[in-house]
Amino acid sequence: MLAIESWPLFLFPLLPFLLYHNPLLAFSLKNCTIVYSENADNLWVTCKEHELAALPDDIPRNATSLDLSSNQIVNITGTDLRCLSKLISLQVQYNLISHIDDGAFADLVELRLLDMDANKLINLTDNMFQGLSKLVTLSLYNNQISCISPVAFQALVSIQYLALGSNHLHQIADIVPIFKLPNLNELLLGYNKLTSFQSDDLPFNVSNLKVLQLDFNPLRKFSIKKDIFPHLQSLAFCKCSCDIEWDVTNKTFLMSLTDLSFSGSSVSFEAYIAMLHTADSLQKLSLFFLKEWIDEGLINIACRIPSLKTLYVTVSRLGTIDDNLLRSCSQLTELTLSGNSLSELSEHSLRSMTQLRFLYLDTNQLSKLPLAVRGLSTLEVLDLMSNFISELDCLDFVNLTRLTKLDLKHNHISKLQGCLFQNLNNLKVLNIGENPVFTLDNTFKVNLRNLEYLNLQNNGHLVFMQGDFRNLSSLCVLDLESNTYYQLYDGAFEGLDNLQTLSVSLGNYKKEHFRGLPHLENLTLHLTFNWNQNSSQKNYEPPFSNLPNLKKLVLKVYDKYQEDISPDLLKGLKFLEYFMAEKFFMKSLHPDTFKYTPRLKGLQITHSDLSDLSPELFWPIPNLKALDLSNNKFRSLDFLARANLPALSWLKLSDNLLSVINVTVLQSLTALTYLDLIDNPLTCECSNSGFNQWVQSNSQTQVVNGHQYPCAFPTQIHQIEDNQLLFGRLPAETQHVGGDLRYRAVSHLSKTLKKLYYLMFRQISDNRN
Ligand SMILES: *[C@@H]1O[C@H](CO)[C@@H](O)[C@H](O)[C@H]1NC(C)=O
Ligand SMILES: *[C@@H]1O[C@H](CO)[C@@H](O)[C@H](O)[C@H]1NC(C)=O
Ligand SMILES: *[C@@H]1O[C@H](CO)[C@@H](O)[C@H](O)[C@H]1NC(C)=O
Ligand SMILES: *[C@@H]1O[C@H](CO)[C@@H](O)[C@H](O)[C@H]1NC(C)=O
Ligand SMILES: *[C@@H]1O[C@H](CO)[C@@H](O)[C@H](O)[C@H]1NC(C)=O
Ligand SMILES: *[C@@H]1O[C@H](CO)[C@@H](O)[C@H](O)[C@H]1NC(C)=O
Ligand SMILES: *[C@@H]1O[C@H](CO)[C@@H](O)[C@H](O)[C@H]1NC(C)=O
Ligand SMILES: *[C@@H]1O[C@H](CO)[C@@H](O)[C@H](O)[C@H]1NC(C)=O
Ligand SMILES: *[C@@H]1O[C@H](CO)[C@@H](O)[C@H](O)[C@H]1NC(C)=O
Ligand SMILES: *[C@@H]1O[C@H](CO)[C@@H](O)[C@H](O)[C@H]1NC(C)=O
Ligand SMILES: CC(=O)N[C@H]1CO[C@H](CO)[C@@H](O)[C@@H]1O
Question: Where does the UniProt annotation place the signal sequence (predicted)?
Fold first, then answer.
């Protein structure tokens, strides 16, 4: 067989005559796919990104979730959603909907979520939402809504969350009925054109609202003169372009308010002070884009509210924190200073914070751990991710003995040492990923007995010696994936008695490396070398025999294919349930490969140049439910006919060379409900008509992304322009092909081309023979 990459170039000019759009992959749904779900009660249908101008007419009536997002639907008519009485979630965001018939949703009695963001709605009419009595979440963000009928939301008796942000609402008086919805908790009104929010415009006695967002409105007045929001907990005003008059006549009116966020220096300092004065119960304050007023002392004023526990100051360009900025914030338990270009915290800047438990300093420009942090002995979580820290000092964490989570990901740390974490006896999560660490010293040989998660992803060329992790007896997850690879010595993982998940990039493999991992269930190996397990050698033992409890094994190979994989690769893995191999096997698998893994449920062998498998391969694994053989070179499914896979329900064979599908084979897979044949050069010659009929007539198996299409010979020849090819989009009416070969246009042009040449080559050589 000719390797795909080496097809002769002389075939190229023929191409335009051969490509055409063949919506051949027929099946029960024309424009949608049923998403595979292990839970039989779910029927998730997606028609996302299909350039639909209207709702499809073949949505299964018992669909529980329907995604129509990112199409070009212009309206929803009274019949579009008929009978979908089991639907729980409906997504139609990113369409062009400007009109919805009255009662269009009336049958959707179970609907809980309706997302209509990014459409063109202008009016919300009287009966638009009729029947949606169980709807909990309605999102209408980013439409052009300017007019809402007073009764539009009347039917929504269960609604808890309503997003009307980014619309054209002008007056609060126009949406009064919304405030009276009995169960409404959250109302999002950001990015509208509201110029005032005044209780005088709200003719009701009480609203149950808990969360109100008014950010990015040109609000000039906020006035509450009666106790109509007794439950309001969270209020957001952000980036007003003008000053605001704040008038809350009695502090008790905002007694429930615990969470306030605001931003923008166009609001006067005085207005912010006034806001803070009426928020006596405040627990959390978030400040954005407020450098000017922070420099004026806004934070210290806020911190005088005794209940304030959480302060969030971000994108406020704070280059340094001096000794005064947070002076009166002694009661804080959580402080976030993320994303501020901080390069320095003065030594005593955090001195007052004797109760601080969470400190987020991520996404700044710190080059070392600030001295100010060293004294925070109450700290439990410290996030220093995405800074420029290059060195750590033995004293940095010495007093942070209560720390449970430390994030140092994405810094410039090159060296770790034994003294660093020695006092962190309570640490559970440690992330040092994305650093250039090249030496570990004795970093993990200290008393980190509570550590459960350790990430050392993408560091320098690390070497792990015997016993390096010996004291990490609680570790469950260890991530040693890398762009290059790490070097292991025998016994490197010794002592990891509780490790369940290990992911590692290796430069070579020795079974001895994986000693002492009795509880390992998940193993992912990224291999950068040739699998050199030579089973003909004396003393050969199966490579994973030290890992008897493995349930999931993933083998990924960079660049190279592996040859001569021994039939007892998986010997000893009697509990294995999932096996995934990418570029690991080349061209074939030994029929005994799965003899040792009777519990296998999921199998994925991709990018392996496979063109055939022997049916015997599958005989030892009758429980197999999901099989993915995509990105190979199968030209026939015949190997499945005698494979005996009574439980197989999910089969993916995309990106292969299948041209004719034998229905007898599909019929032998009695449990099959999902079949993916995308990106195969399926022909529509009459030899495939059996498959077409099967696709149309069988009610059990869905063929992904297929369309009904008669197997008839084309009548018209279309030449296809190169540019159409490049974008992978061909005119829908283009149906012709040379000879009786027909191909489906796909977006991955190069792959399709290769297959095309391949088949052409076959045809030419067949003709010669
Ligand atoms: C949906 O209906 C079809 C046909 O009536 C039936 O075969 C299938 O089992 C149903 N699915 C669910 C999830 O109820
Ligand atoms: C809905 O849109 C379709 C397709 O553009 C159009 O034919 C139909 O008249 C529209 N129906 C209503 C009620 O607007
Ligand atoms: C929206 O409602 C207004 C007032 O009821 C009406 O004048 C206008 O024509 C409606 N627009 C659309 C697109 O239905
Ligand atoms: C508000 O409460 C008062 C006194 O309980 C009552 O008389 C009035 O009708 C209520 N107003 C509204 C709009 O519900
Ligand atoms: C504020 O309201 C409370 C309770 O409604 C009332 O007792 C108190 O007198 C009011 N205070 C002022 C200054 O009006
Ligand atoms: C740690 O705490 C001890 C006792 O409070 C103190 O003497 C020492 O200076 C602290 N070390 C650092 C590095 O802050
Ligand atoms: C590391 O573990 C060994 C054996 O379990 C123990 O003797 C030793 O004290 C531990 N080291 C530390 C620093 O906890
Ligand atoms: C194994 O990995 C899968 C995800 O790939 C995860 O869902 C599962 O929880 C892991 N199992 C254990 C024991 O960590
Ligand atoms: C495997 O080992 C046998 C015996 O030592 C040797 O003859 C053979 O060449 C080896 N094969 C490979 C691929 O290294
Ligand atoms: C289809 O597969 C069955 C079972 O393997 C075989 O008997 C039959 O000959 C095949 N049909 C074609 C047309 O290849
Ligand atoms: C809304 C709808 O049904 N759109 C398309 C679904 O697929 C068929 C067959 O390709 C098209 O003819 C429809 O226009």
Answer: 1-26
